[in-house]
Amino acid sequence: MASVHRLDPMSRVPDETTVYGAWERFVQGEDDIRGVRPEVAISWHRCRDQYRVDPGLTEAPVAVAEVEHTLEHDVVFAELGFRAASVAHEVANVGGIVTVADATGRVLAEWGDPTTRKLAAEANLATWFCWSEQATGTNGMGTALETHAPVLIRGAEHWCQAFHDWTCAGVAVRDVVTRDPIAVLNISCWRSDLPGSAGAWLSNAATRTQCTLRQRAQDGSAELIAAFNHARSRTGVALAAVDPAGRVVIADDTASILLGVPSSTPAKDPAVRWNPGLPELIRTARYAAKQASRNPDWVGTTQVFTHLSDEPTSVTFRPVFLAGHLAGNLISFGVAEGEQLPRGDGTGSGTNRGQPSRIVAMRDNRMVLLRLPEVSFAESEGNDVWLSTDQGRLRAASASLDKLEHEQGDAGFLRVHRQYVVNLGRIREVERRLKGELMLVMDDGANTMVPVSRRNAPAVRRALDI
């Protein structure tokens, strides 16, 4: 591995040895940004190539969207607001400010040094303005919402030049079930570094809030299991209970076969729930959760493909609540009751909107932007995802095979095994083994053979029409 020389993000010298110099080259269209931290470089690519944020922007825009906040979100905002207010005096003593924003990047509250708050107001770093990456480029709040780790953005690492005087650190609080962001906590300082305790304080605040959410999720699991047992005693249809992310909490014998999950084994911990590996059903479950959160009496039905079946099956979703909080849905198989849900891309999930047309990989300290046809397949290995590409084997910038599947599922990429996602357009041959197992021979130069798991085989056959 080549050594990485980190550039000084606070320097304003416009040459090749500063982040500012790298930023200047990048906004002009060059891709060589060696020395810039990978998480910042990836954010810059999103800002330039996906969101097309003007680097000359001088202030954040007004947050125009009115977001529907659930009871779960209100709990998070109250918790973060309490923690931010408790540390506001300490942050103010070093000339800093603390902000809490929602999942859209809309600032909800602000505390801290009055002088710094006046400077922040000139850039609209204030309540009711939007600091998502899509609106204002790389910054502590927006970039934290895009990632699953705390972020530090200093000086010229900000995408917009007008914000190069700022240093900020942010951490997002995410729903422990769906992993979607709920809120973000941020500390900002003008022309100075953050206090040494900032990182630890942010992480501690997020961790404590996540603990509250985890306990609520476990209580929700218990309520789902109770509702499942009650419904099972009153009906003979195949039945399962899923959380708002579409993961299975419990399923009876028949439903477990259809979903490809263990039978009658409750998964109370949100971290170890069963993934059915059925993208259409997962998208529908998420859509059903959104509908139910708006209308507690909502019931919906549609048809979805299941494992070991070449024909779609009717399913009905019924929401389960605990103290006003949506715990998940009961799914009845072979039953069609309630509102008819749109199928496929019509679920309103927005899976196609804003998805990247390239996959980002890493080679030493340089980012490689791959066109989708250049990628043959992706393989998880430990904590990394490796891509088989026309440029050789490269480590993906994303460490999640699930995320790659979600982002590229509508672009011809399919999960065929818990360790593999393949580009359907790069399958050269399909080999059938003696016991019916499928092996995919990939068009990657080495004719790599990728296994297909039993529960993913029906989806592969449908996708390839075999």
From TrEMBL:
<dbReference type="InterPro" id="IPR046947">
    <property type="entry name" value="LytR-like"/>
</dbReference>
<keyword id="KW-0238">DNA-binding</keyword>
<dbReference type="GO" id="GO:0000156">
    <property type="term" value="F:phosphorelay response regulator activity"/>
</dbReference>
<dbReference type="InterPro" id="IPR029016">
    <property type="entry name" value="GAF-like_dom_sf"/>
</dbReference>
<feature type="domain" description="HTH LytTR-type">
    <location>
        <begin position="359"/>
        <end position="466"/>
    </location>
</feature>
<protein>
    <submittedName>
        <fullName>DNA-binding protein</fullName>
    </submittedName>
</protein>
<dbReference type="GO" id="GO:0003677">
    <property type="term" value="F:DNA binding"/>
</dbReference>
<dbReference type="Pfam" id="PF04397">
    <property type="entry name" value="LytTR"/>
</dbReference>
<dbReference type="InterPro" id="IPR007492">
    <property type="entry name" value="LytTR_DNA-bd_dom"/>
</dbReference>
